[in-house]
Design a protein that fits this description.
The complex is a heterodimer of chains A (297) and B (455). Helix content of chain A is 37%, strand content 25%. By secondary structure, chain A is an alpha/beta fold. Chain A has 2 domains: 156 residues, Rossmann fold; 127 residues, Hypothetical Protein Tm841, Chain: A,domain 3, CATH 3.30.1180. In chain A, strand 10 and strand 11 form a beta hairpin. Chain A is globular and about 60 Å long. In chain B, helix 1 packs antiparallel against helix 3. Chain B folds into 3 domains: 212 residues, DhaL domain (Serine Threonine Protein Phosphatase 5, Tetratricopeptide repeat, Alpha Horseshoe), CATH 1.25.40.340; 116 residues, Phosphotransferase system, mannose-type IIA component (Rossmann fold, 3-Layer(aba) Sandwich); 103 residues, Hypothetical Protein Tm841, Chain: A,domain 3, CATH 3.30.1180.10. Chain B contains 19 helices and 12 strands. In chain B, the strands form 3 sheets. In chain B, strands 9-8-5-12-10-11 form a 6-stranded mixed beta sheet, with helices on both faces. Chain B is elongated.
């Protein structure tokens, strides 16, 4: 399949069929529940997605941890041993320390395999935004480019991924410190739904308030359609945390405004899921480079 | 314990006491966590990481080198979180520094600490100062200068702890996000607890039991950053001033972002002077006023005209429910005052304010038979009356012509109404209107049993 492996991590939210289709591997992070630790697998073979999000609905606190060093070592060594290079497209560094851990490990492993290359690219986004960069990397690989060319390319286009998301409750993002917001966002108000983007440094930024349930999907759809460039050439990516009906409604609302080539819908995996909470829906489209930057989280 | 040289067993008992001290204080460390991701788990991550080292070391082993090596391997495998990864690399360096040592002397330990701090820096692609890395490096600053000065570990670990604390207290000066939050670095604090635990062991104080400390020591906060910020009149772009009545409502408007709240009292409406006085305490480019009562709008407008300190605008909210709705959409990041006001007002036409109160006399209004002492439901008109408060509320909602377009109901409950009462009323409304979202706020209003913001 080419000279290098494309690696993501648990936050890429790609289902097993997509991982297989594009030949993408991932380094699992971990989640902890009731003091027990589990690898965050994207095939939901430990807890089903329904079980997982029901745990959260029932108030069970799920903590997440970055990719452990030995997992990176094993993944990197596996491919270098096979004579392949590795392109690792990581979760945004504003959301996980993983990529910062991966870089020194990659250096160490590379020293043992002279001539081989591991590139760690900070995607500055997560979920299917991160996945869509990996899929694009596979397309570039298929053109015969080498790992450095593709890594440079992905680095140059990573900020074109736009995220338009909303969560049922900001509590989860707040608790784990993974959102920044315009001031006065987190007040004790009811019926306020945040529109959350991924800003230019890869942090979640609650950029606008939407009042009332019924207004959420139309407003998300309008933003996504407005900012997508050449939708007819793009796949629309939508991920959801056990909210498939909402995801489908969002797809239909966006498609009615902008004719995307096709749409891929997946379930948000355990890591992103633990941060955003059940009921979250996220859409990703390709547009101009993101320039907005939120305040300190 | 002979504290001039440490055997493998001594090392492990020091590390174990360090672990127990950290574990007792883990929630404090969690609470300090603001960098790089404020997810409040530094204490737990460091504790679990360090525990992995203890569990992997053989308590019968006498060789310092072997204990350190096993300890290091254990922490590498159990490392979690940024702080845990850095700590595991620190231990790895410590273990490398003890290579070939059956026992360890104070100068050996100083060299090992140097190697530990170097290794920790190397573990991070872009080391940040003001974090546990800084604390790891600086704590041996003095000891490194004169490694032979220390006759035993008591004096060496005392010195390290003193320097470590100094370094930790300085972290807010190095890392702006710590200064802003007014705390010292969490990972550095975790490290200090580990070493203070070792210090206790050297003094023969071995920790046992599972007590947990949760009160963050004052010294972990920057001396007066919080207070300083509160006391300084801070310049802002936009400030909001509201009038409100009922202690719960006044408190609520204060907590949710108003710079000043004027007591709108039911019988004594506030004077223009009360507004002007409130404006003069605020340093803002624009002040936006929420009068929250039809009888106060004119006074607020007059005050806005009189006051020449800054630009003052009035949003004509006729009820506290409208004021609440406007505040809920407040966004201080808006570029202009027009945008700021637009965000607060564009849902306002959609807000209906409902009240439940007690009838003070018999009457017949709009064909509704009102009896003194019964509950009446009203908007600007009386729309329901019943002996049962829930029925009065349900009839009030049913009488609203656009009730099917409403999406959010916030229930403010008055003096003498408990949250459970409010929840029971809300349940009855929710079963009638299952698609609406309901919220509850203790308003402690004097006159109304309930006020509803129906949006």
């Amino acid at each position: 399949m080419g000279t290098f492996a494309v690696l993501v991590d648990s936050t890429a939210d790609l289902g097993p069929e997509m991982l297989e289709k594009y030949n993408i591997d991932y380094a699992p992070m971990n989640y902890t529940m009731d003091d027990k630790e589990y690898p965050a697998l994207l095939d939901w073979s430990i807890h089903s997605s329904k079980e997982f999000y029901d745990f959260m609905r029932n108030g069970i606190i799920i903590k997440t941890t970055q990719v452990p060093i030995p997992v990176y070592k094993e993944k990197f060594e596996k491919y270098l041993k096979e004579g392949k290079d590795v392109l690792y497209i990581s979760c945004s560094s504003a959301l996980s320390g993983s990529v910062k851990t991966a870089i020194p490990v990659a250096k160490e492993v590379m020293a043992e395999y002279p001539g081989r290359t591991i590139r760690c690219v900070d995607s500055l986004i997560s979920s299917l935004g991160q996945a869509s960069l990996a899929i694009e990397a596979c397309a570039e690989r298929a053109k015969g480019k080498d790992v450095n060319e593709v890594a440079d390319y992905i680095e140059s286009i990573r900020l074109t991924r736009h995220q338009y998301a909303t969560v049922d409750s900001l509590e989860y993002l707040k608790r784990c410190g993974r959102v920044s917001a315009a001031s006065a966002f987190f007040g004790n108000f009811f019926g306020i739904h945040p529109l959350i983007i991924s800003d230019k440094i890869g942090q979640n930024y609650a950029v606008r308030k939407i009042k009332g349930n019924k207004n959420v999907i139309p407003e998300l759809a309008a933003e996504a359609a407005k900012n997508a460039i050449h939708p007819e050439e793009q796949t629309l990516y939508i991920s959801h945390a056990d909210a498939e009906d909402q995801a489908i409604a969002l797809r239909d609302a966006i498609m009615a405004l902008a004719p995307f080539k096709d749409c891929y819908i997946s379930t948000i995996g355990p890591i992103v899921g633990a941060s955003v909470g059940p009921g979250t829906i996220i859409s990703f489209v390709i547009g101009d480079e993101v320039t907005i930057q939120g305040g300190e989280s | 314990m002979n504290t001039e040289v440490l055997t493998g067993g001594d090392l492990l008992s020091l590390f174990t006491n360090g672990y127990r001290n950290l574990k007792q204080n883990a929630s404090i460390v969690d609470a300090l966590n603001v960098f790089p991701i404020p997810d409040g788990d530094t204490g737990k991550n460091m504790t679990m990481t360090w525990l992995g080292g203890i569990e992997n070391a053989d308590p019968e082993e006498a060789s310092a080198e072997k204990v350190a090596k096993a300890f290091s391997k254990g922490t590498l495998l159990s490392a979690r979180g940024n702080s845990g990864v850095i700590l595991s690399q620190f231990v790895r360096g410590l273990s490398k520094g003890m290579k070939g040592k059956e026992t360890v002397t104070p100068p050996d330990f100083i060299l090992a600490m140097e190697s530990a701090s170097e290794r920790a820096y190397a573990a991070v692609s872009v080391p940040t100062e003001g974090t546990m890395l800084t604390v790891m490096r600086e704590c041996i600053g003095n000891a490194k200068e004169a490694p032979d000065k220390y006759a035993d570990f008591d004096s060496l670990i005392d010195e390290i702890c003193t320097e470590m604390k100094k370094s930790l207290m300085n972290t807010p000066n190095l890392l702006p996000c710590l200064e802003e939050a007014g705390v010292v670095d969490s990972g550095g604090a975790g490290l200090l607890y580990l070493f203070e635990g070792m210090q206790m062991a050297l003094r023969g104080e071995f920790l046992e039991g599972n007590e947990e400390n949760t009160e963050t020591p004052d010294e972990f906060f920057t001396p007066d950053s919080e207070r300083r910020n509160k006391m300084k009149k801070k310049h802002v772009k936009y400030a909001v001033v509201a009038a409100a009545s009922g202690e719960g409502m006044i408190e609520y408007f204060k907590n949710e972002g108003c710079s000043a709240v004027i007591d709108g009292g039911q019988t004594n409406n506030p004077s223009a002077k009360a507004f002007v006085d409130a404006f003069s305490t605020i340093d803002a480019d624009h002040i936006v006023v929420l009068p929250n009562d039809g009888n106060i709008i004119l006074t607020a407008k007059q005050a806005a005209k009189i006051y020449d300190g800054t630009d003052v605008r009035v949003i004509e909210t006729k009820s506290m429910a409208e004021g609440y709705s406007a505040m809920s959409m407040m966004d201080f990041s808006q570029p202009t005052v027009e945008d700021f006001i637009h965000e607060m007002t564009h849902y306002l036409p959609n807000v209906t304010t409902g009240y439940i109160t007690t009838a003070t006399r018999d009457a017949n209004i709009n064909g509704i038979d009102i009896k003194e002492g019964l509950y009446v439901g009203l908007t600007t008109d009386i729309l329901s009356c019943d002996a049962d408060i829930t029925t009065a509320a349900l009839q009030l909602f049913a009488a609203l012509p656009d009730i099917d377009d409403k999406q959010v109901v916030t229930i403010f409950y008055g003096k003498g109404i408990s949250k459970d009462d409010a929840l029971a009323l809300g349940d009855a409304l929710e079963s009638k209107y299952p698609l609406m979202e309901f919220g509850y706020i203790d308003g402690s209003m004097d006159v109304y049993a309930y006020m509803f913001a129906i949006e």
